[in-house]
Design brief:
The chain is α+β, with helices and mostly antiparallel strands. Helix content is 24%, strand content 28%. It has one helix spanning 48-63; strands at residues 12-13, 23-28, 31-36, 43-47. It has a 4-stranded antiparallel β-sheet with strand order 1-2-3-4. Strand 2 (23-28) and strand 3 form a beta hairpin. The radius of gyration is 13 Å and the shape is flat.
Length: 68
């Protein structure tokens, strides 16, 4: 397992962030890191392809379009 310091990453908060509970994302090389703002020391990491598919799925759900 490789340990990556996430302290210097540019984490971006969701636009749908509530007062103290936010999802944050950051680019980690070719991957995307996702974390909960209340626990910034722990993050999940996804490939760029997996993240793109996830976001596309959210968009389809929001707009009511069927899966491709």
């Amino acid at each position: 397992m490789t340990v990556i310091s996430t302290a210097d990453l540019a984490w971006r908060k969701s636009r749908r962030c509530e007062a103290t509970t936010c999802v944050e994302v950051a680019s980690i090389g070719p991957a995307v890191g996702v974390r909960n703002s209340t626990d910034p020391d722990v993050h999940l990491e996804f490939s760029g392809t997996a993240w793109t598919a996830f976001v596309a799925g959210l968009d389809r759900t929001r707009t009511g379009r069927p899966a491709e």
